[in-house]
């Protein structure tokens, strides 16, 4: 059995297609690290000029305004909220000028909490979140800003109380590990799962080209399938290698960050709940492990699905398409707040945005509390088992032929 | 030639690949209906409210001063304040159901915006207003509607509206779909070389027959798109086949839906031929279906990754493979704007097809078919 | 009729085919005999123009040569080679394979049904070839070539994996096709079978085609040339050489001993028989050298 595994693995590594996938991943990792990562322009950045301009304008207003009874209510409102707001901005300014990042983090978390409490309650017409959320075509800028401000508040709180080395790059989430975290929050899971599909699509069917060579091996079809699945799984895990090249480049340029950096997770809220959005931090290490866990389950699911399709339909093209359906199905039913109407937590495809599921952002978008890591593990694990069971039944059927 | 075509049809008929591609096309159409429903596409009030907020933010980036014509505020500021007012009027017009008012305001708004793009300080607010090409597209659309007195329709799920949306979406992924579909076109034959090598037919005729049968199946896909949309006639009505769609074809102009569909289909057919021939050549050279696919996708992505290339090599057919993006003039919004003319695109792709046919005729023979 | 003129093929400096010139006529079955890897398939590939020979040319019907792609098509219309069974399309039926070949060569559509019948393939012809056994696939490949109905047919290892009944059946069909005026070139390892139906048999020796008559004079003639005995020990052979100093005795690597009796009269023959009997050799036969013996002589080095 071990010999067969070795044989399959060598076959896998020698396969032109698989080599090409690794090379392409390497290319994209380098392209990202050298070309895209440096142009990353976060909305919530450390912008001393911006803070100063805001601080000075408001300070001027406060120093000139005279409070009297028949003043415009908005002016009155401003006199009520600006002093505290400016106090935090001043703290931030002083801290950053003294290069005291700990203090900056502390003041910033207060600033975000206070800003959000005002804007979320009174915003919409007079006070706004950062302009970056109100881009043309975005229908939900207030919700986005709300989420981002609370997220930032929680993040800075973590910096203030944690033991990690702080730097502007850490604040702007530019270090290697934070970049990884951001990528897990966007396209990286899709890329990894697509790679897994491409690795697995031909692993069974390639043997059809030389059937007599392999048909007679003293191994049951089921075992062969499992070993093939294992090889595809190992190959999918190995995609880490080319991708880590990109991370190393980013790390050398912007620092690596460390595993105790805080990653805020939003606490899932039930649909239409009146509770407030809250965040809770876990360490970067923990976050990455959770991501790994869910991704590993994704790999297993994709592999078991493709093994199943391979024995059932025996067509590589079908493998590719079925794989794509699992990944892209969510695109068709996803819409903000749809979780209230549909039980999306039962579809494996709802968990395809691995990083967003774990950070709670996906539940926030769906407006729905059940899209959690544990549900994800259960749904993906269960579907993997079901597909494996079907594959097992088919491969043990009397009339079944693997090739 | 006819014999070869008959042979190919016998083979394709029982090829599971085609069955699956058909299923996927059907699934795509139904998925899209679902998507449009859940996204409430065509809900103008929602869109306009968000636009209003964006503009408010843009205005907020400037010092709050008197914005009347003869004040000394900056031009862009005055312009934005006016835009904000006009959007507010649009929302009111929508809510009060006054299409004429909406139309007039819209035209005014696009004209106003048109001026803002060249003003000093525009970069600061660029992300809050539509891009220049989007604005121009809106402009011609509204002008046309006013001229013809046509009513604005917002039912994105009526048959023709839906088809326009469907083909716009398909147009942007058509090349990718076709390259996946055709990536194995010859590799499959490499497993049957001893049957094929001896056929009394030249390689170019063989390829021609192969392409023709693939194109017939592509035709089936396109017809399928129409058939699967038919139920919408029953549920949501036929819609208006001459409802205008704004496009960029060198100039900003308006196509009625049927013309837009025809252009899309023409483009799709040409791209399909292009992709199939490319697959044939790459298959013979690389002898591997996945490598073929990767090379095709890389060629496709390259101009997107390095947009300066588009300026440098405007005749690169790979610039033109995303029909929707071309027809919306998206490349005009790049840091270095490129004018990609859809008609020129067709010509370049056409020339590439001719070149590939010549290559196949001159350099490839059945002798090149070797078992992999 | 197909003519090879000075065909030479070298692979990495080694002569695979060396200056082969020969003509194959209509209504003739040619047998090619050689161990694996000596150039039989190369020769067929040259005839089909799958391999360009380093020198020489193939001429069909005294007019057609592989000078252009157009001519290649014309020649392929008249010359076909049997497909490999591993190349069959597993997802379509045997009948569809036959239809494909029939339509590709524009042959008489009735041939499909008649070939199925003569080869006894009715029971499975409508099933997908993926389910076929080795012999069924081989028969299908043969049937496909028969259906293509070309003037010249090249068949490499045509009897592979067939049971004796079908070997016999296909031999009969070959003879019938010959009578229709086809040129059939067969490479086979079933030498006894080949001997039965082939009109001319060639051995591949050092890249050249050698007619069996050259190796063993009188092979083609209806004359007794050899006494063939087995289990002859070395002492007996020595004794034999002493007793018949002018008679040629050959020992083959396959264990057979051949005594050359070409031109012997009956008395001389009876002396030989007498000798064998005295030395307690009971298994011997009169006749010709068999192809198996020639093969052993040529290719099996003792």
Order of helices and strands of chain C: EEEHEEHEHHHEHEHEEHEHEEHEH
> How many distinct beta strands of chain C?
14
Strand content of chain C: 15-25%
- Could you describe the largest sheet of chain C, including whether it forms a barrel? 6 strands, mixed
Helix content of chain C: 25-40%
Shape of chain B: elongated
Assign the structural class of chain C, choosing from mainly alpha, mainly beta, alpha/beta, alpha+beta, or little secondary structure.
alpha/beta
Question: Topology, please?
Answer:
The complex is a heterotrimer of chains A (403), B (372) and C (302).
Chain A: H1 2-14, H2 16-36, H3 48-64, H4 73-97, H5 101-122, H6 141-161, H7 168-171, H8 176-185, H9 188-201, H10 211-215, H11 221-237, H12 240-254, E1 262-266, E2 279-283, H13 284-312, H14 316-333, H15 354-359, H16 361-366, H17 373-395
Antiparallel strand pairs in A: 1-2
Chain B: H1 2-13, H2 16-39, H3 44-60, H4 75-95, H5 99-116, H6 122-125, H7 132-148, H8 159-182, H9 187-190, H10 193-196, H11 203-229, H12 231-236, E1 244-248, E2 252-256, H13 257-286, H14 289-305, H15 308-312, H16 323-327, H17 342-363
Helix pairs in contact in B: 1-11, 2-11, 3-4, 4-5, 5-7, 8-11, 8-13, 11-13, 13-14, 13-17
Chain C: E1 2-11, E2 14-24, E3 28-33, H1 40-48, E4 55-60, E5 64-65, H2 69-78, E6 79-81, H3 94-104, H4 110-118, H5 134-148, E7 152-156, H6 164-179, E8 183-187, H7 191-197, E9 200-205, E10 208-211, H8 212-215, E11 226-230, H9 234-243, E12 249-251, E13 256-260, H10 266-278, E14 284-287, H11 291-299
Parallel strand pairs in C: 3-8, 3-9, 6-7, 7-8
Antiparallel strand pairs in C: 1-2, 1-4, 4-5, 9-10, 11-13, 11-14, 12-13
